[in-house]
Specification:
The complex is a heterotrimer.
Chain A (H helix, E strand, L loop, with lengths): L4 H21 L3 H25 L6 H31 L13
Helix pairs in contact in A: 1-2, 2-3
Chain B lengths: L2 H18 L5 H29 L12 E9 L4 E7 L1 H20 L7 H20 L3 H12 L1 H9 L4 H29 L7 H7 L3 H18 L8 H8 L2 H25 L1 H28 L3 H21 L3 H32 L10 H4 L1 H14 L6 H15 L3 H29 L16 H19 L2 H20 L1
Antiparallel strand pairs in B: 1-2
Helix pairs in contact in B: 1-2, 1-4, 2-3, 2-4, 3-4, 3-11, 3-14, 3-19, 3-20, 4-5, 4-6, 4-11, 5-7, 6-7, 7-9, 7-10, 9-11, 9-12, 10-11, 10-13, 11-12, 11-13, 11-14, 12-13, 12-18, 13-14, 13-17, 13-18, 14-16, 14-17, 14-19, 14-20, 16-18, 16-19, 17-18, 17-19
Chain C lengths: L4 H4 L3 H20 L2 H29 L5 E12 L2 E9 L1 H24 L6 H19 L4 H19 L6 H31 L5 H4 L2 H9 L1 E2 L2 E2 H16 L8 H4 L5 H10 L4 H8 L1 H5 L2 H24 L3 H22 L6 H31 L10 H4 L1 H15 L5 H15 L3 H26 L6 H6 L5 H16 L21 H22 L5 H9 L1 H7 L4 H47 L7 H21 L3 H26 L4 H6 L3
Antiparallel strand pairs in C: 1-2, 3-4
Helix pairs in contact in C: 2-3, 2-5, 3-4, 3-5, 4-5, 4-12, 4-17, 4-23, 5-6, 6-7, 7-10, 10-13, 10-15, 12-17, 15-16, 15-21, 16-17, 16-20, 16-21, 17-19, 17-20, 17-23, 19-21, 19-23, 20-21, 20-24, 21-24
Chain lengths: ~100, ~500, ~675
């Protein structure tokens, strides 16, 4: 059986849900970052799937995943820098403790 | 690159250079700032001479003549363009801005505290102001408008005196409130124009539906009016001016408040029918401005507050002139922008210098100062005389035109308001002479003041420049009228046509 | 081209003193000695006088009756078709004034070199004096009402500067402020008058305003229940009355005596204060066409002349007596204008005749008084006496001036007063005539009162008397020069040079000259009786009048009334409440809106816990709600959900309000953190 569009969509929805769940529940900042990557890649997978099955001629379907990968890389760099700074500062990575932006 | 882009770009380039310089090299930073301002003065003077030659050729029907046009597509989908161009009014405003920033930099020559950022923000603000005066595209106009308004928060909040955070916040919040009204207005104009364009000329010539004008006009007029000190949205100005450092007060009262008046003029051009509907209403509000500002100033004893309330009164005269909706009133209003810009800049520069010596701004604690600082005293007197509309100085030319324009309308309400507004010349004389004589005349109030020194050379330069322009515009108003008249005439024609 | 170099270059007349002032202020004062400054000032005024007198002679020799405009240019274009011009005008009126102003100004400049010798601010004084001369000349040479308004204000400011010459003296400071503000208030009327003209006359040039067509047009417009013509005339007269110190705007002039005495002679006796008379004369065609306006001019003039003369009798400050005398004489000039009409213009000529003679003898009186003050260092005539022996030249010239102002036959004042009285009587105003006659008697009385008290009898203050001496030549020469026209000017056939309408030669009408002379002589006689020798009579008279005398001596309490109105009413009941209103109500409203949003923020801030995952939950929740909206829009379930949402929001807000009302303002407490 060849996987169709719906299989890819289900897969990406699953990955997305795992990502969101992880973001909401994991206390460790690094773990949360990993989950963000999951969310981003779920979106990228969607793009590729739609491109492959429905809009083969449109370059947007291939450009966007690349863009997402680039953005993810940049985001990871910045986020890791923050993580390191935070760790140096607090000696742990518990997001619940980092609430200095409280209103 | 056109001259307008150059004028606008120079301050931004200077900001870049200043940011790259180390903070310790304050002297170089000041020199860069001064050089940028100087280049702009030179360019502005060229622009004026050039405009005087071009002034004979009229613009398209219903629009002011437009010179030095630079027009490039920018954000094409939304019809946003990079569209520069100036008419006579804008040329004068650019000259005013250049002169005031030049004098402002000189007046803050002794500024030390965080000098790098101070001068950078100052120039950033000025770049925004130039951009506003040069823009012919509403989006671009608004963009520069915000660039001009926002640095004020930091300039007052960081370098101010007294309750500076409060004043800075109040000023920014009220001006942002005004901006919100403006941006709504701009968007309405954009969407109703049909074709995606922000170009003022296109929108104005195409015409805005009557029903839209009826509510968008007051919206935008109040928006710009807030910056122009329109009563009752003027209260940011006394506190803001009182808290701001010298150069910032100069720039703010001298130039930034003019953006309000300038914007109001553009709004009238865009929506003449709305202007006719609301003219009398705004005339009444500005009558309050003029009359009330002067009376409140009578009661104040802090020099900066006196000047700030006199600004409320004088800027009221600008919008009052615009609300008359006729040629003479418009000419007077534009002239008043120029005159008031120069004289408040002079006032605030002087107050800064006097405060730097006496360490007080209360006239009750001063007296007999003309004996110890004759130069500053005489300059203050000239400023005061310009403020009370003494002929021979620029203020008079403005006032008489505004009054003649307002009186030309035969309706009783206009007449009554003109008389009320004109009666402020007496009140103005009262508060200016009160401050002047208390501060300068009489016996020396404080024995310590006997040792104070008069203005230094660097301080004299800006004062002399400002006094020169005040007197020159006051004695020879012809060249300015020559620039203003053809630029406001099409607006008046549109008002008459509908 | 007028065929005369002087007339063609008439514009030099105001320009030279202006350049003088500029040169002194910018170059000479900082760089050279005071002597150079005064020299430059005198040179500038001399040049101006030469050109001015040359032009006047050329004019009266060849052009009498014409109006020439040697130079004019467009100055301020209100609209492309309506502009204000500036230029110089040459007609009988302006030429007369140019002669008076340049002549008196030159003499005062010279006199001042002696009077102010060695004082601080010497150069500043001469710069201001030059500035004043320039402004005054610009005023009298104006071609349009806009130009006259411009210079009108400039003379006001020069007067301000010169009254405040002694700027560390509080009384001088108060006086200069008062002078400026009172005249400024009057100028508001002038300004409004100009506005009325600007709206209906279609032009501001005098040539245009004098045109019968313009006057007819102005008469045709009804404004505030009267014609625009009358309204403009009355409003402009308000300005004139302020500058010429007519009742009730007279209060600034006596105080203006705080300035140096030469300034009082030039500005507050001979030239600036007659600007009001000049203005009415200049607009004579307009005033003449409005009987109501002319009645105002006449009544105010007549009243002022009597009112001021009565006060002058009670004053002891020599300069104040002269100041009230000036008021009275200005009232005379105004009443003469007020009785004149285009058809019977004798009053016009008489008024300007009196203007010229008054300028000479009043300047002489002031300069003489200055000479006395210079010698004894006091203004109080009760501390003078017997100075005749010490100061023979001053005495002689002062006596001449007193005889001239008293209207003794043969002296200049006799002729001009006679003409005014004739104008009043022939114009059909017997009441005005009799008041003027009474004033003539009073004038003679109070002038000789100060003459006797100052120059004759025994010295009252020996210390001061011993130090008195005749003034230096720089001071007595101008006195001597001014004495000549004070005597002889009356013999000039004035009416054939300065007139409107038909030339009228009054000649001497004995039916008027004899009572006038008798009134003058009676005044002198009474004065001699009371003050000619030492006696207690004046004090007794004063005591017998009681309250009346005190009221007069206090100048009818006008200063107090004004002070009450300005300080108590305006400052306390208008300015102060407005300032409060601005702070509390207008600004308060702004602050209140800021407080309201703070309150809202304080409540909403609870949502911003600062926890990353809470924020994320809210974001995803929001996204979920949006999706629900898209899927369920329009379905009953959605409507039910929405209603539930609104109820929830309303409940939350309501709870908050209840909390606020109960005083449990939890959100407000938390604001204090920032």
């Amino acid at each position: 059986m060849h996987p169709g569009l719906e299989h890819y969509l289900i897969l990406s929805a699953l990955i997305f849900s795992f990502g969101v769940y992880g973001m909401l529940t994991r206390r460790n900042l690094v773990a949360m970052l990993l989950c963000v990557e999951l969310v981003l890649n779920a979106a990228a997978l969607n793009f590729v799937a739609f491109h492959r099955f429905l809009f083969e001629g449109d370059p947007a379907g291939t450009v966007f995943p690349i863009l997402i990968i680039a953005v993810a890389a940049a985001e990871a760099a910045v986020a890791l820098a923050i993580v390191i700074a935070l760790f140096r500062h607090r000696r742990n990575l518990d997001v619940r403790a980092a609430d200095t932006l409280r209103g | 690159m056109g001259i307008l882009t150059l004028i606008t770009l120079v301050p931004f380039v200077a900001v870049g250079i200043i940011m790259l310089l180390p903070a310790e090299r304050l002297k170089t930073i000041k020199q860069v700032a001064l050089a940028a301002a100087g280049i702009d003065v030179a360019l502005a003077v060229y622009l004026v001479f050039d405009a005087l030659e071009r002034v004979a050729t009229p613009g398209p029907a219903g629009a002011p003549p437009l010179w030095h046009v630079e027009r490039h597509a920018w954000l094409d989908r939304l019809g946003i363009e990079f569209y520069f161009g100036v008419d006579g009014v804008a040329v004068l405003m650019i000259l005013l801005t250049a002169v005031v920033i030049f004098c402002g930099v000189l007046a803050s020559w002794r500024h030390e505290h965080r000098g790098k950022e101070f001068f950078a923000f100052l120039l950033l603000l000025v770049g925004g102001v130039f951009g506003v005066f040069a823009s012919q595209d509403l989006f671009l106009f608004f963009l520069f408008y915000e660039i001009a308004v926002l640095p004020m928060y930091l300039l007052i909040g960081l370098w101010g005196t007294g309750p500076k955070e409060y004043s800075a916040m109040k000023l920014t919040m009220m001006l942002m409130g005004g901006s919100a009204l403006i941006v709504v207005g701009i968007l309405v104009l954009f969407f109703q124009s049909g074709s995606p364009t922000f170009a003022m000329e296109t929108i104005a010539l195409k015409g805005v539906p009557l029903a839209t004008q009826a509510w968008v006009f007051p919206l935008m007029f109040f928006g710009f009016g807030t910056l122009g000190g329109l009563w009752p949205f003027h209260t940011w100005s006394p506190d803001g001016h009182a808290s701001a450092p010298t150069a910032v007060s100069m720039l703010h009262a001298g130039v930034l408040m003019k953006l309000g008046g300038y914007g109001c003029l553009k709004v009238i051009w865009l929506m003449p029918e709305g202007a006719k509907m609301w003219g009398t209403f705004f005339l009444a509000l500005t009558t309050v401005n003029i009359f009330y500002g002067a009376l409140v100033a009578c009661k104040k004893t802090d020099l900066k507050y006196i000047t700030a309330y006199s600004s409320v009164s004088h800027c009221g005269l600008v919008i009052f002139g615009l609300s008359t909706l006729n040629q003479t009133g418009f000419q007077g209003a534009v002239f008043q922008m120029f005159a008031h810009g120069l004289m408040t800049a002079l006032f605030f520069a002087l107050i800064g210098m006097i405060y730097g010596r006496t360490h007080t701004r209360f006239i009750t604690e001063m007296g007999g100062l003309i004996k110890v600082m004759p130069f500053l005293g005489v300059c203050y007197m000239i400023g005061g005389m310009a403020g009370l509309g003494l002929p021979g100085l620029a203020g008079f030319i403005a006032e008489i035109q505004v009054f003649v324009g307002a009186f030309a309308d035969a309706s009783t309400s206009h007449r009554v308001m003109t008389v009320l507004a004109a009666s402020s010349v007496v009140t103005t004389a009262v508060y200016l002479l009160r401050a002047l004589t208390k501060m300068l005349y009489g016996p020396l109030q404080d024995p310590h003041h006997a040792e104070l020194t008069d203005a230094t050379f660097v301080e004299r330069v800006p004062l002399v420049i400002l006094v020169f322009f005040l007197a020159f515009a006051g004695m020879f108003p012809g060249w300015m009228i020559k620039l203003i008249a053809p630029s406001v005439a099409p607006i008046v024609a549109r008002l008459g046509a509908g | 081209m007028t065929g005369s170099w002087f007339l063609d270059h008439l514009w030099l007349v105001p320009l030279l003193p202006f350049l003088g002032a500029l040169l002194i202020a910018l170059v000479l004062r900082p760089l050279t000695s005071p002597r150079v400054c005064s020299g430059a000032a005198i040179a500038a005024v001399s040049g101006s006088a030469v050109v001015g007198w040359g032009a006047a002679f050329a004019y009266f020799a060849h052009h009498t009756g014409e109006t020439l405009v040697p130079w004019q240019t467009l100055w301020l274009a209100f609209t492309p078709s309506f502009a204000g011009n500036v230029g110089v005008i040459a007609d009988d009126l302006s030429m007369l004034l140019v002669m008076v102003v340049t002549g008196v100004s030159l003499l005062v400049h010279i006199y001042s070199t002696g009077y102010l010798h060695g004082e601080g601010g010497y150069s500043r004084y001469f710069a201001s004096l030059n500035l004043f001369t320039c402004s005054m000349l610009g005023l009298v040479l104006s071609v349009s009402i806009l130009q006259i308004y411009v210079f009108w204000e400039l003379v006001g400011v020069s007067s301000f500067l010169l009254i405040g010459y002694y700027w560390d003296k509080p009384s001088a400071v108060a006086a200069c402020k008062k002078a400026f503000i009172v005249t400024r208030f009057a100028d508001l009327g002038f300004l409004l008058g100009v506005l009325v003209l600007s709206a209906y006359a279609g032009g501001l040039d005098f040539a245009h305003l004098a045109d019968p067509a313009t006057i007819a047009r102005l008469e045709g417009v009804t404004l505030l229940g009267t014609s625009a013509l009358t309204l403009a005339a009355v409003l402009i007269y308000m300005g004139a009355a302020g500058k010429s110190a007519m009742f009730p705007l007279h209060i600034w002039l006596p105080d203006a005596m705080e300035g140096p005495t030469p300034v009082s002679a030039l500005i507050h006796a001979a030239t600036m204060v007659v600007a009001g008379v000049y203005l009415v004369a200049r607009l004579f065609p307009i005033f003449s066409a409005t009987p109501e306006g002319m009645t105002v001019v006449m009544v105010v003039g007549t009243f002022t002349s009597l009112f001021a003369a009565v006060i002058a009798v009670t004053q002891f400050d020599i300069k104040r007596v002269l100041a009230f005398s000036t008021l009275s004489q200005l009232g005379y000039m105004m009443l003469a204008l007020g009785v004149a009409r285009m058809e019977s213009p004798l009053g016009y000529t008489a008024s300007l005749f009196h203007l010229a003679t008054h300028a000479c003898f009043k300047a002489l009186l002031f300069l003489g008084a200055g000479s006395v003050i210079h010698a004894v260092h006091t203004n109080d005539i009760r501390e003078m006496g017997g100075l005749r022996r010490k100061m023979p030249i001053t005495h002689a010239t002062f006596l001449i001036a007193c005889l001239a102002i008293a209207g003794v036959p043969g002296f200049s004042g006799f002729f001009s007063k006679d003409e005014i009285l004739a104008a009043a009587l022939h114009g059909g105003h017997p009441v005005v005539f009799s008041v003027a006659l009474l004033v003539a008697g009073l004038t003679a009385f109070y002038m000789f009162r100060i003459y006797f008290m100052t120059f004759t009898g025994e010295p009252r203050d020996h210390h001061k008397f011993d130090h008195a001496h005749e003034s230096p030549p720089s001071m007595w020469v101008p006195l001597a020069i001014l004495a000549v026209p004070s005597v002889l000017l009356g013999f000039v056939p004035f009416g054939s040079f300065v007139y409107r309408g038909e030339v009228e030669h009054a000649g001497i009408d004995f039916a008027i000259a004899i009572p006038a002379t008798l009134a003058g002589l009676a005044g002198i006689g009474l004065s001699a009786l009371l003050y000619g020798r030492k006696s207690g009579a004046p004090a007794k008279v004063a005591a017998s009048l009681g309250f009346v005398y005190r009221a007069i001596a206090a100048k009818f309490y006008f200063d107090e009334i004004y002070l009450f109105v300005t300080h108590r009413i305006i400052f306390r009941f208008v300015s102060a409440p407005l300032a409060w209103f601005d702070r509390r109500i207008v600004d308060g409203a702004m602050d209140l809106s800021a407080q309201a949003s703070r309150l809202g923020g304080a409540y909403l801030r609870r949502m911003a816990s600062g926890r990353l995952q809470t924020s994320l939950l809210l974001v995803s929740g929001g996204a979920g709600l949006l999706m629900l909206f898209l899927i369920l829009a329009g379905q009953p379930l959605f409507i039910a959900l929405s209603v539930a949402g609104y109820v929830a929001i309303a409940a939350t807000v309501g709870r908050q309000i209840v909390l606020l009302l109960l005083g449990r303002t939890e959100p407000l407490k938390r604001i204090t953190r920032d």
